[in-house]
Amino acid sequence: xxxxxxxxxxxxxxxxxxxxxxxxxxxxxxxxxxxxxxxxxxxxxxxxxxxxxxxxxxxxxxxxxxxxxxxxxxxxxxxxxxxxxxxxxxxxxxxxxxxxxxxxxxxxxxxxxxxxxxxxxxxxxxxxxxxxxxxxxxxxxxxxxxxxxxxxxxxxxxxxxxxxxxxxxxxxxxxxxxxxxxxxxxxxxxxxxxxxxxxxxxxxxxxxxxxxxxxxxxxxxxxxxxxxxxxxxxxxxxxxxxxxxxxxxxxxxxxxxxxxxxxxxxxxxxxxxxxxxxxxxxxxxxxxxxxxxxxxxxxxxxxxxxxxxxxxxxxxxxxxxxxxxxxxxxxxxxxxxxxxxxxxxxxxxxxxxxxxxxxxxxxxxxxxxxxxxxxxxxxxxxxxxxxxxxxxxxxxxxxxxxxxxxxxxxxxxxxxxxxxxxxxxxxxxxxxxxxxxxxxxxxxxxxxxxxxxxxxxxxxxxxxxxxxxxxxxxxxxxxxxxxxxxxxxxxxxxxxxxxxxxxxxxxxxxxxxxxxxxxxxxxxxxxxxxxxxxxxxxxxxxxxxxxxxxxxxxxxxxxxxxxxxxxxxxxxxxxxxxxxxxxxxxxxxxxxxxxxxxxxxxxxxxxxxxxxxxxxxxxxxxxxxxxxxxxxxxxxxxxxxxxxxxxxxxxxxxxxxxxxxxxxxxxxxxxxx
Length: 673
Prior knowledge:
It holds the Pfam family Zn_ribbon_DnaG. The protein is α+β, with helices and mostly antiparallel strands.
C-alpha cells in the first residue's frame, strides 16, 4: 500500500528510536550519554555480555559492533516482532498516536506529484546558484563578501541569486519542459491577476535554499538587495512539501553536528546560522521567518535536550525570548530545557563573531547561557517597585499564573521552589532549612509511633481516618504546654498555623510568603515551615504528611501536632475546608503578630525603666500591662475567656510574673492582681 508522502517522515520525527529499542534492552548507563542521544546496550540480536549495540537517537539508526545488525526504527520492529514493513509502521504509528492512512488510490498520485515538486525546487536551486556568478549579481556578491561569507560556505549552503527580471526563473524552467502550474504549486512562481501570465516570486534577492530533514530542497528564503523592497526577508509560500512552521533552516547538517558535540544553537536568521557555521559552530538552526512554533520546539528537543537560544540583547530580542518561553512552558518535562544567550545590545551573532573577541567570546556566552527560569523571573520583575503588600501580591499572582502553565508536576515543583528562592533574595530575607538552621537533623520514624492528626498506616500506606485525640505520652507531658515554658502561647499558635497548612495544603502557595518571612520559634517549626515550601504542587494532605515525615522526621512532626490545643483547632478538625482554614490562618497570624509587637514594646519599656528609674515613666504602657493581666485573670472560675478558647491568647505563668514585676517596679497600683 502506498503511504502519503511525508507520513513516514512525520512518524520518524515523533518516535524516538531509543524509546522503541529501550523496550527490548537494558541500557548501559555508564557508557550511554542520554543528553547526546548516544545509547549503548547488549545486543538484542545475539547473546553477549558487553554493550556493543549502539543507538544514535539523533540520526535514528542503530548498529551492533558484534553482529553488524543495523537499521532504523522500522527495521528494528520488523526484526524483533517478526512482522512486515507495513505492520511495523502500524505498531509505531500507534505508539506515536498517529493513524495509518487507509489504502487510497490517490495516494500514489500525490506521492508522484510531490516528487515532481521537489524536482522543480531542486532545479530552481541550481538556477539561482549559477546566477550568483553573473554580472547582474555583483552587488549581491559584494554584500556577501562584506559579511565575510567564504566561497566554500556559499557552496555548502547553496546560496544563490534571484535575478531582477520578472520571468527569468519561469522562462528557464518552462524552457526545460516543466509545467507552469507545477511552478506555481511549488511556490516558485505566481500568476498575474490581470492577465494570468507567469512571473517569478523571488526577484533581485540573495537566495537561501531551505532543506528538509533529509537534506532535500523544499523552499527558498530571499534577502532583498533593494532598499525599497517591501520585505527585507521573504520566504516562498507553503506547499505540499513545505510547512514553514514545522521545519528549521540547516536542520539536517545541524543534527549531525549536534550528534558529535551534544550542543545545539538556535539563532534568529539564515545569516546568523551561516556565520556560526563559518566560525566553528556547525550545530546551528533558525526558524523560517516566523516565531518558533511548538512543532519546531519538539524538533529542537529531539536534537538536543538543552539547546541554547541566541538572541539580540535589545528590546526586540527580549520580547522574542519571552514569547518563546511562554510557548515552551506547557511542553517542559525532565530532559527538555531551554537556555538563553542575550548578545550585547546592537550585535547579532555575525557581528560578535567578527569582532575582536571572535569565536572565543561567543563560546564564553554559550557556556554561560541563562536557564529559562532566570529569564522568566527577569520578565516578571524587571522595572517593578515592590514597596507595598499589594504590589507583592500582584507579583505572586503573576508567578502562580506561570506555574499553572507548566503541565509536568516535577518541573512545576522545581519552578515553584526556584521562584520562592528568588523572592527571598529579592525581598532580602531567607529561611533556615531546619530547626537549627542547618537543614539537618531529621530523625527516623520511631517504631510504633501513633501517626499524627488521624493518619494511620494501613496496607503499607498512610490513610486518612478519624482525627483522634492522642493519649498523653511522656513526650507530650514534657512539652512546652505542660511545662509552662516562656512563650508557650506563641509556639502553640505557630503549631496551629503549620497544622492548618498541612491539613489544607491547597493554601500553601497562598501563604508561602508567611512561611518564608515569618520567624518560627517553636521546636522544629522552622524546619517544618521550610519543608512545606518544598511540597510539590497538587499534593493532598496525606502526601504532605508523608513528605514531612521523610524530610523532618516523624518525631518532630508528632511533637508539633500532638498538643490538644492544636488538635481541637477548627481548621485541623475540619481538614480540607479552605475557607475555614484561610480565616483561621488570618486570625492566628494577626494575634501572633500583635502579641509579638506588644512583647517588643514591653521589652523596650523595661529596658528604659531599668536605665532611668524614677524618670519619665511611660504610664500608658503600665496601664496596658495591667489591662492584659486583668483580662488574663477574668472569667468564670478565675480562667479568662481567652484561656478557654481553642485558639485563645493565653498567658503562661512566666509571662504573668513578668507583667506583675513590671508593675511592681514602676510602683503602679492599678486593678491587676
